[in-house]
Write a structure and sequence with these properties.
The structure is a homodimer of 331-residue chains.
Chain A: E1 2-4, H1 6-18, H2 24-39, H3 50-58, E2 69-74, E3 77-81, H4 87-105, E4 107-116, H5 122-130, E5 134-139, E6 160-164, E7 171-175, H6 182-191, E8 200-201, E9 207-208, H7 211-217, H8 226-243, E10 259-268, H9 270-273, H10 281-291, H11 303-315, E11 317-319, H12 321-330
Parallel strand pairs in A: 3-4
Antiparallel strand pairs in A: 1-11, 2-3, 4-10, 5-6, 5-10, 6-7, 8-9
Helix pairs in contact in A: 1-2, 1-12, 4-5, 6-7
Chain lengths: 331, 331
């Protein structure tokens, strides 16, 4: 990793996206969402994904000019089509819309069909929490995870994001349903480290903490074994049903062809979340984790992100050298 | 386990509840919800919980005459108080209300404060799916699970239920955030079996599949290790925030004193779920799990429940002999 100033990263991304046909406003937002992922320590779902996105744009799979449109509405629930536009712009627009619906109806839900990889899922959790809203969203994916009882990837690792606003640091859970992502497995392998807990099956069908063995079988573990397997299934069904979109088994199982995803964005009214009954509640919950545990290390979701953000804004944002070279070469 | 006819179980429960001061209508519903848990193979959260509930009723912790009341409303989002009434009746009423709100607004959410243990969480998922609605609900609990990085139980195992209606068998996920419940650990210990996967830590702080060792440390594992730990935290915060109720760290950590819980019930409009864009979608997803996996054993959530229900209605519902003796002695 090399470090670059946040604004240099943002500028380089904006210039690169300009060359792909994004209009200026959308290039600016798309660049910010990608730069923010690296700023927050999630390079795997920020700059590192850009080469794949560019490939898909050039192949006509992602349409940079496509805007999401509303297809159907029933009060607080709406169905949008992403029209195969950039996944992060579609997702950002739909969480923004869910927040507006929540302000009108107390709770709001936008189900999005025909979209693309949303890149860093946590983005839309931070977006909701920054607006003072509780946010809950998930995406289906191509088949990339064997359900419990199978050896082949029949379900998606369907990332799930849950965010709660808090003045002194939002709580943002951003997790895929697999115990480790492919990116995490590669990182452990490269560093020559064992996984901290078993992450999948080896070629003999035994649980293993050897990342390379899991990469070779493709048999990643769902979180909680059979529990995560069931969770992945229902998240997929709900996203496809509410959005009227595709389910995991209908999505091409190759990363550079993965399109037509279904996603769900739910928000709760910021005024409700900030109600007087709630004053200081999230703070007390966070405090209870550290106070009562003495010197143990209990982290709340989002805690590490916030710490990294501060460090990276001060000392520079870590970027993968080849990805940084890629974006600079485009501009 | 002994087997009794479903209707004999239901009648015995109704008579037992009559003696506790429930009115006839509520005794009938409460009895049905408990009998249905055993019928569906979840005796641990059905009849086996009755002695504890009766103890709490006699101690004045659960008020059998208390009805849930609406405290606040903002369109599709409502806050109710359970008034420390029977947990399953409160939860059932709130999921029913969420379904009505969903019919009016597309999506509906009821947050419930000051309630009691809802017994079998899956009940409210089946309830939603039987009404044609997608249902999503969860409860916080007393502290009974060490978060990742701690040795003491600072978070709840906060059961999460997600249900999708389907003509040929609903999909209903009903899972606690711990990998195994205390009931499951006891069952493995009694049978002298190892857990199928590690379920917690032994006294040396090592992961173990020895149920007795985990019961002795109380260090159960969250699903997905750090992931389930984060999930338990955000589910608790959201339930307490939306309901204006208590968070896990404010709940007495003794089963027979566990009261004042916070819960969330979300439903999506049955008409939307049954829309023409969705015809057969859930069936195709279920089919994709078996077809593509050949002879592998992939189950969808709820599949086993439905099979057990059929067997138990035909051959008798399994009941724990001492719990059955308990309910008969009350009537």
């Amino acid at each position: 990793m090399v470090r670059v100033a946040y604004h240099d990263l943002l500028d380089a991304l904006r210039r690169a996206l300009d060359t792909l046909g994004f209009d200026a406003r959308r290039a600016g937002l798309c660049a910010r969402l990608i730069a923010d992922a690296n700023r927050d320590g999630v390079a795997s779902h920020g700059l590192n994904l850009l080469p794949r996105v560019v490939t898909m744009i050039r192949a006509g799979i992602v349409d940079v000019t496509a805007e999401p449109v509303r297809i159907a509405a029933a009060g607080a629930l709406e169905r949008w089509s992403g029209n195969r536009g950039p996944g992060n712009l579609n997702a950002y627009a739909c969480m923004a819309r869910a927040i507006v619906l929540a302000q009108e109806h107390g709770v709001g839900c936008v189900a999005l069909a025909d979209t693309n990889h949303w890149m860093r899922g946590g983005t839309y959790g931070w977006q909701a929490a920054d607006a003072g809203a509780i946010g809950l969203c998930w995406s289906n994916t191509m088949p990339n995870l064997p359900p419990w009882g199978a050896t082949k990837p029949l379900v998606g690792n369907n990332p799930l994001v849950i965010a709660v606003p808090r003045a002194d640091g939002h709580l943002v859970l951003d997790m895929a349903i697999s115990q480790f992502s492919f990116g995490a497995l590669a990182a452990y392998r490269t560093r020559g480290e064992r996984l901290p807990v078993p992450g999948g099956f080896d070629e003999n069908g035994a649980l293993t903490d050897d990342a390379a063995a899991i990469e070779s079988t493709g048999r990643l573990l769902p979180i909680g074994f059979w529990k995560g397997s069931g969770l992945a299934i229902v998240l997929d069904v709900i996203a496809a049903l509410l959005a009227g979109g595709r389910a995991t088994h209908e999505i091409t199982a190759r990363p550079e062809k993965e399109t037509g995803l279904s996603q769900v964005f739910i928000a709760f009214d910021p005024m409700w979340c900030a109600g007087s009954a709630n004053t200081g509640l999230a703070d007390r919950i966070v405090a209870s984790l550290s106070t009562e545990s003495g010197d143990e290390q209990v982290r709340y979701p989002g805690q590490r992100t916030r710490a990294l953000r501060e460090i990276h804004l001060r000392d520079g944002v870590p970027v993968d050298p080849s990805a940084w070279q890629f974006v600079q070469s485009m501009a």
